[in-house]
Design brief:
233 residues; 1 helix; disordered C terminus
Length: 233
């Protein structure tokens, strides 16, 4: 029993240091910038913590997003491999929105304000009520760049942010604020299929807690009826 309780506490500490992903704010992913043009986006993702502060956890999930002129919405779910004392996978859910604040025609740089929230709950396997809950809230400003590339869309981006993390365990709760930054690249073919990659750094709470997370995945974008095509990511 003692070993299991120690394991649960370790999970709590580890998850509190994991950066959430981005479009859906899912635990274990980078915070992605939303850069799709008008349409529907479907994505499958893999996330991996790269250092001890990230927990070195693996995450697998999917996201769906709808992008209208100047406004974007997304939601997703993922499973996170905890790998602590035999505790298996847990699900995390999240969503968010973005608003274009600077995107003039003929200018290769766009600026988007985006915010979201994600949540994960780890039940106490002993049934003692010591559940772990983690809320993850990144608020970012994303800069996306249009790279001239005939026949293919290439979109690099960077997204500095402020980050709020609230965790509760065994009736006690803790709130921390920090900052982070992510950057990545999306490549999309004219048919709508593409791939995306990102890396994420965050410093929150204790200055020594600086999780580093990598993410990669595939996406497919569909133009909605009555709307133009879906350029970019």
């Amino acid at each position: 029993m003692k070993r299991t309780l120690i394991g649960l506490a370790t999970v709590g500490v580890g998850l509190a240091m994991v950066a959430a992903p981005a479009k859906a704010q899912l635990m274990g992913y980078p915070v992605y910038a939303w850069t799709s043009g008008p349409g529907l986006t479907l994505a499958g993702d893999f996330g991996r913590g790269l250092n001890d502060e990230s927990g070195r956890l693996n995450a697998f999930g999917g996201r769906v997003g709808v992008s209208l002129p100047m406004v974007h919405f997304w939601a997703g779910a993922a499973t996170l491999d905890l790998r602590v004392d035999g505790i298996g996978n847990e699900f995390t859910f999240g969503g968010g929105f973005g608003i274009d604040v600077f995107d003039p025609p003929l200018v290769p740089v766009a600026i988007t304000f985006q915010a979201g929230a994600g949540y994960m709950n780890q039940s106490d396997p002993l049934g003692l009520g010591n559940d772990l809950g983690v809320w993850n809230v990144p608020i970012a400003v994303a800069f996306t760049f249009d790279v001239p590339s005939p026949g293919i869309d290439v979109t690099p981006w960077v997204a500095p942010r402020v980050h709020y993390l609230r965790s509760s365990f065994g009736g006690a709760s803790n709130s921390e604020f920090g900052f982070g930054a992510s950057g990545g690249l999306a490549v999309t073919l004219p048919a709508g299929f593409g791939a995306h990659f990102a890396a994420d750094f965050m410093s929150i709470g204790d200055p020594s807690v600086q999780p580093l997370v990598f993410g990669a995945g595939l996406h497919y974008r569909i133009a909605l009826p009555g709307m133009p095509g879906v350029p970019g990511m």
